[in-house]
Amino acid sequence: MHRGDGVARLRNAPTWLIKMAAERAGRLLADGFAAADSRGYHYLLLAALDEHGPSSQAELGRRCGIDRSDVVAAINEMAAANLVERRPDENDRRRNVITLTRAGSRHLKRLDDVVGGIQDAVLEPLSDRERQQLLRLLAKLVDHGG
Amino acid sequence: MHRGDGVARLRNAPTWLIKMAAERAGRLLADGFAAADSRGYHYLLLAALDEHGPSSQAELGRRCGIDRSDVVAAINEMAAANLVERRPDENDRRRNVITLTRAGSRHLKRLDDVVGGIQDAVLEPLSDRERQQLLRLLAKLVDHGG
DNA sequence: CTCATTTCAGTGTTACTGACATAC
DNA sequence: CGTATGTCAGTATCACTGAAATGA
Questions:
Q1: Model confidence, pTM
Q2: Is B12 exposed, middle or buried (0-12, 13-18, 19+ CB in 10 A)?
Q3: Which end of chain A is more exposed for a tag (fewer CB within 10 A), N or C?
Q4: pLDDT of B54-88, one tens digit each?
């Protein structure tokens, strides 16, 4: 029996199935991140730094969809763990420049592996064709209102 | 631009799309519930009481997939709002029997309407055929490991 | 003056853990 | 005895709000 399966009106509610699937993926991701002494925000921020290079905290927040106040806390944690470096921007003294350290790069690689493994585990029951279907349908939902 | 779209490695990650879709649905649901002075747990518990009749808190927790300690808090709130009645079980004095009140029944109907409306809003971009596809794929995912 | 940036403090929901007393 | 129940207290992530200080 799954989460909420004791409530009949939810068994055929697509939004509920989406939430359950997301919950499972989220739990696996959170566990995987926790095993690597991280959490979701860390992965997002490290990935954004890797792809776009050194950035201000506000830029990071916009790219990752994380609130600026939450970026502060996450960068605090990662700076304390030497995964990123925070230094004032000389050209705009309101800003900090956040840079990925070498340890941060290594950490991101580990987290990428974690995410890849979970991706496979979650999609395991679907054929390649079904995965593409799912991808297409979800993209439609997300593009519409997400 | 959507949540996390600034991070390229996530754009084609199905688990991420699932999470984004779920996030949207969850936000809409939370807003709808809040507008009715409720929250997700209340809906689940009321629906379980409606479908299965008076139950102990532990039963409710198992049916809804809610932890016992969280059931306590939710029932406290709903009992204070006269949506449910809590009385000791005469046959097993460890238990409480939770009963849906008439006001609780009315409240559940309102919440059912809220959920139905959101269901439609989320699935709007999909044809009937696509909705069935999505339902099938999600069910496969959830049945597998959820 | 207006706006952007960083930071701090706090809220709310969901999810979970540990402990305790009580009763089966 | 072990197990189930209800309760309380606390933690964690994510998401968000409001306000303050600083600087462009």
A1: 0.89
A2: exposed
A3: N
A4: 999 999 999 999 999 999 999 999 999 999 999 99
